[in-house]
Amino acid sequence: MRPVRCMTASRAASHVHARAPLSSSRGASTTRPSASSADAGDAQLKRGIASFYDESSSLWESIWGEHMHHGYYDAGSAGSLTLEEHRSAQVRMIDEVLDWATAAEDAGPRAVSRVLDVGCGVGGSTRHIVRRFGSDLGCGITLSPYQAERATQITQEESELNPSGSEFRFQVADALDQPFDDASFDLIWSLESGEHMPDKAKFMSELYRVAKPGARIILVTWCHRILGEGETSLNAFERLLLAAINRAYFLPAWVSVGDYQSIAQDLGLADIRTGDWSENVAPFWTAVLRTAATPQGLAGLVRSGAKTARGAAVMPLMRLGFATGTIKFNLLTATKPF
């Protein structure tokens, strides 16, 4: 099954001005890479991301289901939860983010006819959002051919059981060079994909470009902590911690939510709000570690391959990153002015 294109790739020639590159959590470099070497590095990164998710998505789905992201838990909650309760927390995450992002809409929620899910996984969030808003179209893009095909398959199977008037399309596409016309979508959603983007300013400018005037952009992503007064970089321990995670999960340099906010301001986005839900995702990585250690999880890791096993090996580092405050689970929402 081939991924379906959401719409034509024709685009206006103009592009939104991008900010200067952000400082990296990897530390300062004495030399600036050439454009060609940077492009080659980005291409290698994207191939790594695609292969990682091609390899690991089936195992994740077999244990965790169609939602490939953190769950939302009440801050300070503890105790042992069942896998089904953790899955419910993943669905709750989507609704909590939508409620948070739209809470300040004085005139009531805007009509959401066309939804774009950037980094859609196997389409769980896309389908949930479209059904919540009664949207006409839900598009999802991913670098992983496996995910695009699986998202299409799941959607078709669900549609056969519960037909609706909504249309869903999933395809392989680069979030930094999206194959959509300007001003195409009423809601732009990106849940835990921004951390994979090597150029955060270009990523945000593409979200801006494909949003209709008045459309809402919602970004939920892993960030590093905001630097304190007088700090020019993370400390050595934090840099080493993130570097180990980067190698396993094919991540470029990290940024803070303050960096994202600055980009949004430079783009001219309105009603910018940010949030820190690090406490609300605290139980998640412990739960993922436990499922990885089950017979099903261990057998799946062996079958899935080296990249998936390496990702599992650094899960304790993700938990450590949250525990030390190095890693933050941040949100940003804004609207594109009319």
Total DSSP helices: 11
Q: What is the straight-line distance between the termini?
A: 39 Å
Rg estimate, integer Å: 19 Å
CATH-defined fold name: Rossmann fold
What CATH first level would be assigned?
Alpha Beta
Shape: globular
Number of strands: 7
- Contiguous uncertain segments of 5+ residues: 7-31
Strand content: 15-25%
Order of helices and strands: HHEHEHEEHEHHEHHHHE
**What number of structural domains do the residues give?**
1
CATH homologous superfamily designation: Vaccinia Virus protein VP39
CATH architecture: 3-Layer(aba) Sandwich
Helix content: 40-55%
How are the strands ordered across the major sheet? 3-2-1-4-5-7-6
Q: What about the largest sheet? A: 7 strands, mixed
**Mean pLDDT over the full residue set:** 89
- SS content category: alpha/beta
Description:
This protein has 338 residues and is α/β, with parallel strands linked by helices. The chain has a single domain, classed as Vaccinia Virus protein VP39 (Rossmann fold, 3-Layer(aba) Sandwich), CATH 3.40.50.150. 44% of the residues lie in helices and 16% in strands. It contains 11 helices and 7 strands. It has helices at 35-64, 83-102, 124-133, 145-161, 200-210, 236-249, 257-267, 284-292, 295-304, 306-313, 315-324; strands at residues 114-118, 137-142, 167-172, 185-191, 211-224, 270-276, 327-335. The chain has a 7-stranded mixed β-sheet, sandwiched between helices. Helix 1 (35-64) runs antiparallel to helix 9, helix 6 (236-249) runs antiparallel to helix 11 (315-324) and helix 8 (284-292) packs antiparallel against helix 11. It is globular. The chain starts with 34 loop residues before the first helix and ends with a strand.
